[in-house]
Design goal:
- The complex is a heterodimer.
- About 5% of the residues of chain A have low confidence.
- Chain A has 13 helices and no strands.
- In chain A, helix 6 runs antiparallel to helix 7.
- Chain A is mainly alpha-helical.
- In chain B, strand 4 and strand 5 form a beta hairpin.
- Chain B is elongated and about 85 Å long.
- The chains are: A mainly alpha, B alpha+beta.
Chain lengths: ~325, ~190
């Protein structure tokens, strides 16, 4: 591949979002530091903490300060503001940050800065949309107005993520999409039915894990650990709640938990899901011992057996990790 | 199936799984609730006036006061010394005021009627109407779910048939809190 082809390919990958400027910056930084070290120079600062990470960190800290400052300012002025002003300082400010973020991303000069702007906007816009709803005199007897509003925010971020192909936008699409699904369930059901929200959490957990698989080696790669963690926590946590009340779940849970350990090493190749599913197995063993053995063999003996079992499960999990996931 | 098709399938399943679940729950609960109806209206009594609406023993007074005999509502004489809530004050001096209502299931609304009007109606005091629908108090606190804690609950009187239930709007419902004791179902109105 000659220089022209190489640059053309690089340009194409940048356009697709498969490679970001941060990735290129990281490669350049690594190359620079590896060249500097053999020459016997003093250890360059960037070899300890690459410039791109420092920049990113500063953007994140700056974004948090700005968001907190805006929220504090709005809270101070809130009672003195009219409806339009309240909408302007919440939704208006959020949309302005989002517009600036998109503009910067569009210019393609500094995409990380664009992400910082979108990060601030993403925390303000959902609240701003709800303030707008309230100021417009929406009737909150039903949860439908909130559901539709959050649904629109989800649609907004899904479109932005699709257009810009940036992780920060996918993050907000997932956050708002998840809230939308819960609200949709709440709005659709005429009365509250027990456990349906737990079942929904399980579905969302599975959905998160599937999305994590889908996002591997893509521009959403950085979301994968987050999705795997919350997906596994949602799935096993919500299923464990059912174990107390449902015989079916009591019987299925160990298969689900052990199955999770197997899938973690064979399909997902994920230490995160392996850890969570190991914790799920341990939680089930504790539940089972307390429920069926503590009264017959007594708590002291049960605790000793429990301790050995937990150590055994932990050892098994570490072995699986070393054998299949260490590389 | 090539890699692109696999990813497409994975995307569809990941995206649609929660939505399909919500839709399945909706179809299996909402539609039976919407279609649940009965051809029979019912008469009920409340006794919340003069006392807090969540008076625990108000319904005892109602049970003593009203009975259905041969399909007709009868108002009984309350003995002078009867103290159904054992608070040291006789029922006559409790300042209870009872009111009667006819609930129209088609419009889901209640209309106050006099004792004379109620006594003109033929009432069936069985729990279920002739077409198999019941009026039941239900309290559900299923609002908490992993990993969130939501302290909302759902309570009130419902028309029920099997698993289907439909909330009914009764007079004084908003003040009833989650106690149901100021209400007495008297009977289904049987058309003449």
């Amino acid at each position: 591949m000659n220089k022209q082809e190489l640059l053309a390919e690089l340009s194409r990958q940048l356009k697709d979002g498969a490679i970001t400027e941060a990735d290129i910056q990281e490669v350049l930084t690594t190359e620079a530091s590896s060249e500097a070290q053999p020459a016997g120079n003093a250890l360059h600062h960037s070899s300890l903490l690459p410039a791109s990470i420092v920049t990113r960190l500063l953007f994140v800290i700056g974004a948090i300060f700005i968001a907190l400052g805006i929220l504090y300012l709005i809270a101070q002025l809130w009672d003195d503001l009219g409806s339009l002003a309240r909408i302007a300082v919440t939704l208006g400010v959020g949309m302005t940050f989002a517009a600036c973020g998109s503009w910067i991303m569009h210019l393609d000069q500094d995409r990380e800065l664009g992400s910082a702007f979108h990060g601030i906007g993403g925390f303000i816009i959902p609240g701003g949309a709800l303030v707008t709803l309230d100021e417009m005199g929406a009737n909150f007897d039903s949860s439908w107005p909130v559901t539709l509003t959050i649904g629109m925010v989800f649609g907004f971020y899904a479109l932005l993520a699709w257009y810009h192909r940036r992780v920060i936008l996918s993050f907000f699409a997932f956050a708002n999409g998840t809230a939308f699904i819960y609200l949709l369930m709440d709005s659709l059901l005429p009365v509250i039915y027990e456990n349906v929200f737990d079942y929904l959490t399980m579905c969302l957990g599975i959905s998160y894990i599937l999305f994590a698989q889908l996002f591997r080696d893509s521009w959403n790669e950085r979301l994968v650990p987050l999705l795997l963690f919350f997906g596994a926590i949602g799935l096993y946590g919500a299923a464990f709640i059912q174990v107390w009340d449902s015989l079916i779940f009591e019987m299925l849970y160990p298969f689900l938990a052990f199955g999770g350990m197997v899938l973690s090493v064979s399909v997902l190749s994920s230490r995160i899901t392996l850890t969570v599913s190991t914790l799920a197995v341990i939680a089930y063993v504790i539940y089972f011992t307390a429920e069926y053995f503590a009264d017959s063999i007594g708590w002291p003996i049960a605790l000793i057996l429990l301790g050995f079992t937990v150590i055994g499960i932990g050892y098994f999990s570490i072995r699986l990790n070393r054998k299949y996931l260490q590389s | 199936m090539d890699e692109k098709q696999k990813r497409g399938l994975l995307l569809a399943v990941a995206f649609l799984l929660p939505l399909v679940f919500v839709m399945v729950v909706f179809v299996s609960t909402y539609i039976p609730s919407r279609t649940l109806s009965t051809d029979y209206n019912f008469v009920y009594a409340i006794c919340s006036e003069g006392r807090a609406p969540y008076s625990y023993y108000c319904s005892n007074h109602l049970r003593n006061l009203y009975t259905i005999e041969n399909g007709r509502l009868t108002e009984n004489e309350i003995p002078a010394d009867l103290d159904s809530d054992n608070d040291g004050v006789s029922d006559r001096n409790e300042n209870y005021r009872t009111r009667l209502f006819l609930h129209n299931n088609t419009s889901n609304s209640s209309e106050e009627i006099s004792l004379t009007e109620a006594q003109r109606l033929t009432l069936d005091d069985r729990l279920t109407s002739p077409d198999g629908v019941a009026v039941e108090w239900q309290y559900t606190s299923g609002g908490n779910f992993f990993p969130f804690v939501r302290y909302s609950s759902n309570y009130g009187y419902f028309l029920t048939q099997g698993n289907a239930r439909k909330e009914i709007d009764l007079i004084n419902e908003s003040q009833r809190s989650y106690y149901q004791n100021d209400f007495m179902f008297l009977g289904w109105v049987i058309p003449q």
